Amino acid sequence: MSLTIASINSGSNGNCYYVGNETEAVFIDAGLTCRETEKRMKRSGLLMEKVKAIFISHEHGDHIKGVDVIAAKYKLPVYITPLTLKHSRLQLSVSLVRHFVAGDSITIGGLTIHSFLKQHDAADPCSFRVSNNGISAGVFTDIGAPCQNLAAHFKLCHAAILESNYDETMLMTGRYPQHLKNRIHGDTGHLSNRQAAEFCGAYKPDFMSLVLLAHLSKENNSPAHALASFQPHAGKMEITVASRDVESKVYHLKNTPDKITPIRPVQAQKLTQATLF
């Protein structure tokens, strides 16, 4: 069996990522309207009927805008931590809410969704790695700084959707007010192109074949800047950008690693410079 991944949209205007196998799939976040999500799924040749659940990374609007309507229309369970639900203001039917805590692994058919705590300015932010029959893909966005959890899961991925939010020079010389610049490049903000590329170079496994650069800033980044940062670390991997305007290609992963190492959940402790590089 293979694992299929696609970005339905990636950016501050909405985030939604599809991960599935031949019979079922999940959304990681649902930040587009139901109508737009359906339109993009149809163009991609992906079936809404295969989606069996929505997993929520955190409560920011660009990750949850479509959750209420999509979950109600398709009767999808929504996996969300209690703190994230409390701060989200989502109006979900109680019957559709499924609570989890960071570090839990949830099984949906043949898929296993592994959650872990990350560093971001939200109530209880999580990221996810989805595995199927020895194949793994990670959705790693909205990360202020690389942490031990991120490194542990990244090393198991055949493909990753990895945040590469801003170019440092563009951010610091741009028109944003200083407090917003501080928030973005702080340890609970977002990853820069440089941070993401150096992290990828340090922790990518030999069997990783694809990285989708995600959550690019419209104001403080460009696909060309992000791709240029990753070129020294690309090797044989395909590096591409997940758009904030259209869905990505659909990717099918079939390779398997030699060994899978169990992960113990830990606090999202920032990696030191010496540890990272």
Features:
alpha/beta, seven-stranded mixed β-sheet, 277 residues, 14 strands, single chain
Describe, in plain words, how this protein is organized in 3D.
It is a single chain. Helices cover 28% and strands 25% of the residues. By secondary structure, the protein is of the alpha/beta class. It starts with a strand and ends with a helix. 48% of the residues are buried. The model is unreliable at 257-263 (pLDDT under 50).
TL;DR?
This protein is 28% helix and 25% strand. The chain contains ten helices and 14 strands.
List the helices and strands and how they pair.
Layout: E1 3-9, E2 16-20, E3 25-28, H1 34-44, E4 51-55, H2 61-64, H3 67-74, E5 78-80, H4 82-88, E6 97-99, E7 105-108, E8 111-117, E9 126-132, E10 135-140, H5 148-154, E11 159-163, H6 168-173, H7 178-185, H8 193-203, E12 210-214, H9 223-234, E13 238-241, E14 251-253, H10 273-276
Parallel strand pairs: 3-4, 4-5, 5-6, 10-11, 11-12, 12-13
Antiparallel strand pairs: 1-2, 1-14, 2-3, 7-8, 8-9, 9-10
Helix pairs in contact: 8-9
